[in-house]
Amino acid sequence: IQEPEEKKIALELLETEQAYVNRLHLLDQVFYTELMKEAKTGKTVPEEVVKMIFSNISSIYQFHSEFFLPELRKRMEDWNCNPRIGDVIQKLAPFLKMYGEYVKNFDKAVELITAWSEKSPPFQELIADIQKRKVCANLTLQHHMLEPVQRIPRYELLLKDYVRKLPPESPDRGDAEKALEMVFMVAKPSNAAIAEMERLQNLWGVYQRLGLEDDIVDPSNQLIKEGPIQKVSTRNNSTSEKYLFLFNNMLLYCVPRVIQVGAEFQVRLRMDVDGMKVWELKDTEFPHTFLVSGKQRTLQLQAR
């Protein structure tokens, strides 16, 4: 007989949870414990650094291995007479707030691993030695550390799926919907934190390509669009290759640098978005052209 859809999803939740607990065990009981033991002998790296790298991974590991996984397993064993997981997930949700600290610390942790691997060869060797073990499946410490960051969005997806597949009259409907709402509330900050982290990383990458001009570097800017464009010169009826970066507050009109060392572009003009106007031109000789006019000047540009 065909298993009901919602049971398949609940089983997938249990299987992924088991794999996740194994990963947490590796982080907490293997990497953290062994690096800490070495740090205590004072040969590799300060104990403080190891603590900073692993943040609150021990609490996360204990919670999942000692509470959530066993509860979930019990539920799945009793599924036939009591088909529900919503109540267990409602107990899980508040504890997911522990992830806030871990997610917030993640960037710094990765930087510390890189910095201390360069500073301390024994530290690097110990990590490399653990990474060679079968349990690491050829993946780096950084890769394993990303797992908790990605786990909450995963709960959210599985649970959404579970609620969608539940028959209307299922005894778990009320609990499961409430659980989904609770997980969603907890997931929001970490999703937002991840999105913000990615936004800042992308922004930093753009600033590096622009040669880090200090009046342009501002963490609150938002990059909206970037891409190559042709500048139309009406004087001699020709076009030349330029590049635009549009931020929420400014348009940067750049030329690609020929020498590819350091910055990729040179900013020729910075136009404030405030008071800027854009309109299309019907130019038969240069199709897809438009004018951008701002306080600073007016440009005639041609898109692809």
From TrEMBL:
InterPro entries (UniProt xref): DBL_dom_sf, DH_dom, FYVE_RhoGEF_PH, PH-like_dom_sf, PH_domain, SOS1_NGEF_PH
Keywords assigned by UniProt, alphabetized: Cytoplasm, Cytoskeleton, Metal-binding, Phosphoprotein, Repeat, Zinc, Zinc-finger
Gene: Fgd2_0
Domain DH as annotated: residue spans: 5-193
Source organism (scientific name): Tachuris rubrigastra
Key word Transferase present: no
Localization in the cell: Cytoplasm, Cytoskeleton
Single GO MF annotation: zinc ion binding
Biological classification of the source: Eukaryota, Metazoa, Chordata, Craniata, Vertebrata
Entry GO terms, CC: cytoplasm; cytoskeleton
Protein name: FGD2 protein
Domain PH: 222-304
GO-annotated biological processes: cytoskeleton organization; filopodium assembly
